Amino acid sequence: MSTAYLSLQEIADRLGVSRNSVAKYNLPKPDAYIGTTRGWLPETIDTWDAARPRKKRVPRPDSQE
User: Fold this and answer.
1) Per its UniProt entry, which superkingdom is the organism in (predicted)?
2) Domain-wise residue ranges, the chain
3) How confident is the model over 10-48, as pLDDT tens digits?
4) Burial, 16: exposed, middle or buried (Cβ in 10 Å; 0-12, 13-18, 19+)?
5) What burial class does residue 54 get, using C-beta atoms within 10 Å of its C-beta: 0-12 exposed, 13-18 middle, 19+ buried?
6) How many degrees, rounded to 5, is the angle at CA 26 between CA 37 and CA 57?
7) Which residues neighbour 23 within 8 Å (Cβ) at sequence distance 6 or greater?
């Protein structure tokens, strides 16, 4: 069985953000390189995502929240 690594686009899809946003993140060290392409194990990204700080969202004054 082969190991599946996540690309930047797959990380973006997993996190629900754009690829450009992911490219700006301070990602953990890749688990593998395939040529010059970086790859991360899903569990590496999940652990990193769970530990990263979150910005608090402030509701807009005109919102009903």
Assistant:
1) Bacteria
2) 8-51
3) 999 999 999 999 999 999 999 999 999 999 999 999 999
4) exposed
5) exposed
6) 130
7) 8
